[in-house]
Amino acid sequence: MSTPAAAPLLRVDGLTVTYTTGRHRTATAVQEAGVTVEAGEFVTVVGESGSGKTTLIHGALGLLPANARITAGTIAFSGVDVTRWSEKRLAGVRGNYVGYVPQDPGTSLNPVKRVGVQVFEAVQLNTPPSARLSRTEQAGRARESLRRAGLTDVDRVYDQYPHELSGGMKQRVLIAIALAGEPKLLVADEPTSALDVTVQKVILDHLAGLRRELGLGILLVTHDLGIAVDRSDRVVVMEQGRVAEQGPVERIVRRPRSAYTARLLAAAPARHVGRLLPADVGANPGAVPEVPDGTAVEVRGVTKTYRVGHGERRAELRALDGVDLTVRRGRTHAIVGESGAGKSTLARILVGTVRPDGGEVRLHGRDLLALSAKQWRELRRDLQFVYQNPYSSLDPRFTVRRLVGEPLRAFGAGRRERADRVGEILARVGLGREFLDRTPARLSGGQRQRVAIARALALEPEVLVLDEAVSALDVSVQAQILQLLVDLQARLGLTYVFITHDLGVVRLVADDVTVMRAGAVVESGPVQRVFAEPAHDYTRRLLAAVPGERIGQEVA
Amino acid sequence: MTIGTAPPPDVTVPVAAPPEPRRRPAVPPPGLVLSWLLVLLVVAWAVFPGLFTAHGPYAGDPALSFAPPSWEHPFGADQLGRDLFSRAVHGAGTTLTATLVAVLVAFGAGTVIGLAAGYAGGALDTTVMRVVDVLLSIPSLLLAMVIVSVLGYSTYNVALAVGIASIASFARVMRAETIRVTHTDYVEAAHGLGVSRWGVVAGHVLPNALGPVLALAALEFGTAVIAVASLGFLGYGAPPPEPEWGLLVAEGRDFVALYPWISLLPGTVLALVVIATHRISTSLRPNR
């Protein structure tokens, strides 16, 4: 391929992609979008779900599914127009000119092949027959590629199967496969969204390092504006299939030209220094609502062990190991930790879906573990739970009216009383009466989570346990739900136990925080103290890994 | 490596166009329409047999003995000179009622057993499902014959037997669906909201688990028609003068070489009904 000196590695202009969704029906996923990556440049495409960011990238690399079609625009690699290239010809360029790192490390590797073989295949596919490399030489290159992807114990990893590796290691293997053809451009689609923050930081650091050492151009797709701002030279913001704006990071952060970018920036947790204030207080500072004193939830030395496997392979998995927790009344207590920290198990113990092996759990002084099933049911009036995924926690056959009315009905409210209350509760979470007869399928993610919160509030509980309640939502929706939670707390005097992996969110809503790791409490205390002077090394590392540092700095 | 299946970006490119995505036709396929018409017709036979034939099913006319099909007697007549079309029309009631009872028995009992086993789990699940496995391992027609032998020969016992013999497959499907639904977040959420155990089962588990079982019921209908008719043919069902489809085929089997229509035409009706119900049940199956 001839490479004119000035031509960018990738140049996409006015790309329009339409999907065939039914007979004579099409939907335009990307409209007149463009992106350019120069040699050695780090460009990020950022947008919320449905913004067309993945479609744009797939279109540029010729990876669109069969029901999608490019209807306008040009794609050029190093100045060579590849828009009309056949699938076969494009496949020849993918791998050795542009390397692609897919989204989910959990499903993108072949589970029945050894990791090394999969990298080896990528090397084999991308070395021209004229190079006449022996198998040993090719295997050497595969090992080299794994090493370059940042894996240290290459000889061991080479012979392992994907299920023996952690998520972060699998992601590195995918990067190794993308690097196997020694590409000039690396395209990564949400490479870290399924990973813990600390692992995410390591992977992103490594990508940045690859750019420095190999002079790669990197095109990253993410929903996280914090990552985009921290890592890239230029940012392309997409909204509903169009490019809302693009430009250098500094300019975008300081003077966003589109209202959408400004909204995204405002919604980013890193933008906010302190805790969110209730809406009616925000307008009138000083009128901070009074909070009752006392302890709502107390957990002492709770332990839970799961038995996994059968026969010879039987093992014990200690999910919780002597956990203590004190939740103050009328406050928000966040429990943070990475996957496997045991925070969800703790939440389920609090609401009684999981029984601990030992320890003590008290709600307003009452010992929960001594309760009978009947007493537990009565306790639901005081203690409610909101699930992470509003797409799975609402019965798809129920209307909003039935969903929110269900707990009322379970506790014997009559038809008329229910009708009145349901309307009232929905209004409280900002939903009008027009939603009453909709099923979850006809609600957006944010609306669904509002319904789930409304349902949890129906019995007027004092304590709400929220398990990753905003993690499945887009940033701008997440900001609205967080504000709603803060407002509701101020008005109803609620106590929240807020489980999350996102430290940015903790700062926004929580008063106290407990950091967990591998089933044990690492550190606990007021958010301001823990964030400003973390006592434990792990907390420090967690805090350092939170993206969005530059968003915060630019404001301050 | 990732290998995509991108369509050519432009129609001018001399590459085969990607296969058109399968579209759901706006007009139902003619086979399905025919199937519905046939089933509706046979149901009408069962409900109002008098509207379709002027002849009685029992009245024999010796002059018509072994009469071949004609406009007056579309299916011809048997050795006693009984009009076979009339017998087929009047037999629809017996056969279809027996089939309906069989499917209802299997559906009702299978759903309850599967729901209980799937929801309760543990020892109950293990015990019940092992019994179900044993039932599944016995050919259902054989099982039905044993049950009829015990209960005594009659159309309703045949229906009951065919129903009992197919409980196992309903229980299996219902159990699998129940387990799937029981582990969803919304069922756990309902428990957490303080909804009673029975309320959760009736309000969430049952309605969400029922879909595939209903599709199976439609499929089972065709199978049950064959089973009922087979038992009738073997003489386990209605006693002779009754016009039952299986029995009609059986009565003609001694004359197949000389007067084939006596067995063949009622047998054809039976076959068409089975094919039609199968066609309808496949259209009802959820697309998964």
From TrEMBL, chain A:
Residues 10-265, 297-543 form the ABC transporter domain. InterPro entries: AAA+_ATPase (IPR003593), ABC_transp_ATP-bind (IPR050319), ABC_transporter-like_ATP-bd (IPR003439), ABC_transporter-like_CS (IPR017871), Oligopep_ABC_C (IPR013563), P-loop_NTPase (IPR027417). The keyword Heme does not apply. Gene3D superfamilies: P-loop containing nucleotide triphosphate hydrolases. The keyword Transport applies. Keywords: ATP-binding, Nucleotide-binding, Transport. GO terms for molecular function: ATP binding. It comes from the Bacteria. Belongs to the ABC transporter superfamily. This is Dipeptide ABC transporter ATP-binding protein. It comes from Pseudonocardia aurantiaca.
